């Protein structure tokens, strides 16, 4: 552990978070009771479909592989837990699945960007699951050194029952874009908790792309060490019939003059397609002069689909620059469709253009050209397969 990172971690000594959305963390599994679904943090999650990840399913599966394409200068290696820097982000498990994954992980995959390195090429990790029969646990730690600049992309493909913790640490002045692409097969269950610690004047962009899988539940949080840190949380998701996609976001403003900007957009179609977005920003009394905004937009394409969207703000100081949130959920816009059709565009193509336009602004904000192109193509594939059935 570098001296600068150690001092950053030790500097963040704050009172426990007093929030009904974020229980106090603990490494002791006994402190995390088996959820019943009545708890605030679990009430939207279909527990019966988690294959007992939240109970006692063994997390000893090994039917998966990891392929690494590390950019020059970046190290990406798996190390035993005892030799790892696990815990560097200060994260403490806040729910039972996270605590179980922490206890079960036998190794930590560590990605390290050296101080002052400016890495143009993205580092890509591909996790391929070979089956859902045996659940497995993973742990990833990404470290961005002082004044470094890099992009890290994690791809999830294949079939798996996967519980995971991800830690991300940005030292002072670092600039990191971290992307997860959940493009699992339709039978996969993935419960992941991600936590970022952002240093002084560091810039963190987190991009979540959720397309495949049966049940996806991703909890993403960030806190700050020192002033000037900036966090941007972007998400794109597309749920089909029977699919459950859940994102839970938490920006914990633990230092003054910090920023957070959250924008998630999702589309859903088909019977029992269900998306959940829970956003929360905590502005502590120490966090004077901060700026924050969170927004979630959902486009419901067919009957039988449901989107839950709950933005929250918890403010402990009035000395802030700006804070707000917004949430929209709407059906397919027949007026836009009529406008396009009146100009000679066929109905099917008109529907495609409306949905593509809905996602276009957030895709432009990603800032990783190859990923933007891939995401545009993935959405086009979804639309090509399903848009003909969107009859309103």
Keywords:
392 residues; alpha/beta; 2 domains; 9-stranded mixed β-sheet
Content-based structural category: alpha/beta
Report the sheet with the most strands, covering strand number, pairing sense and barrel closure: 9 strands, mixed
User: Quaternary arrangement of the chains shown?
Assistant: single chain
Number of strands: 18
Spatial order of the strands forming the largest sheet: 1-4-6-8-10-12-14-16-18
Q: Into how many domains do the coordinates divide?
A: 2
In round numbers, the mean pLDDT is: 89
Q: Approximately how much beta-strand content do the residues carry?
A: 35-45%
Low-confidence regions: 1-9, 387-392
What's the helix count?
A: 5
Q: State the end-to-end CA separation.
A: 56 Å
Helix content: 10-25%
Computed CA radius of gyration, to the nearest angstrom: 20 Å
Q: Layout of SSEs?
A:
Layout: H1 3-11, E1 64-69, E2 75-80, H2 96-104, E3 107-113, E4 123-130, E5 136-144, E6 149-159, E7 161-170, E8 175-182, E9 189-198, E10 203-210, E11 215-224, E12 230-239, E13 244-253, E14 259-268, E15 274-283, E16 291-300, E17 306-315, E18 322-331, H3 334-341, H4 347-365, H5 369-386
Parallel strand pairs: 3-5, 4-6, 5-7, 6-8, 7-9, 8-10, 9-11, 10-12, 11-13, 12-14, 13-15, 14-16, 15-17, 16-18
Antiparallel strand pairs: 1-4, 2-3
Helix pairs in contact: 3-4, 4-5
